[in-house]
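Deliverable D2.4 — example input (structure tokens):
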């Protein structure tokens, strides 16, 4: 398996209310099609790390390599292109546009990317809806969906451009056990069948246990890489 993401000596400072080191010399590698969870107590730096890995935060020391390419120091336009084409995002809150249908919400990132015709994008969106078992909700406004359905639509939206990596910040934080199980099975399926890499920050120990490995953090440092012996 090839390395898809590599972090090298990542250091991050916050300056308010006082200067402190949020991430302290973080280094690790993640392989293609791995399903990796990141765990640790609140304030340990896991979400800060995720935002740096996702290229949304560029104010750090160290280096990030994506698919063997150094992306630290790239221009914002190039990073935006990389994010839209190669990275999918799933947050604890779904961030759907309430007045748009489920289908239209899913189509938005692909329309931004501009690599497919409208008909192809619509077809791809329906395929993602089927994958997540919510195709019958396609034409409903997002505001009329249940919380579990909304999160599954958000996952479908993250998958629409077939990103190499899906990054998740507490993706099941607002879900009941039934919907958490659906999301977990979906993540397992896309990592194994479609060779997509998943990195998920979570507080859910059962969710983490079901991933390929768990990186544990404390006080801005990695205390365990979760590598199998």
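Example output (designed residues):
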């Amino acid at each position: 398996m090839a390395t898809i993401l590599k972090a090298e000596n990542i250091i991050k400072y916050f300056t308010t209310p006082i200067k402190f080191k949020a991430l302290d010399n973080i280094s690790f590698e993640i392989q293609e099609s791995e399903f990796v969870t990141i765990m640790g107590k609140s304030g340990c730096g896991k979400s800060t790390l995720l935002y740096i890995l996702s290229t949304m935060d560029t104010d750090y020391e160290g280096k990030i390599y994506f698919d063997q390419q150094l992306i630290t120091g790239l221009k914002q336009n190039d990073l935006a292109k990389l994010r839209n084409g190669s990275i999918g995002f799933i947050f604890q809150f779904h961030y759907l546009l309430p007045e748009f249908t489920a289908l239209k919400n899913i189509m938005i990132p692909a329309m931004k990317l501009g690599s497919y015709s409208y008909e192809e994008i619509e077809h791809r969106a329906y395929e993602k809806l089927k994958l997540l078992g919510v195709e019958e909700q396609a034409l409903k406004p997002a505001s009329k969906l249940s919380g579990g359905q909304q999160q599954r639509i958000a996952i479908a939206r993250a998958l629409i451009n077939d990103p190499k990596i899906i990054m998740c910040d507490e993706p099941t934080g607002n879900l009941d056990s039934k919907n958490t199980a659906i999301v977990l099975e979906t993540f397992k399926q896309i990592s194994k069948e479609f060779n997509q890499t998943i990195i998920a920050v979570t507080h859910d120990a059962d969710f983490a246990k079901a991933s390929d490995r768990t990186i544990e953090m404390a006080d801005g440092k990695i205390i365990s890489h979760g590598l199998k012996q």
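The chain has a mean pLDDT of 89.
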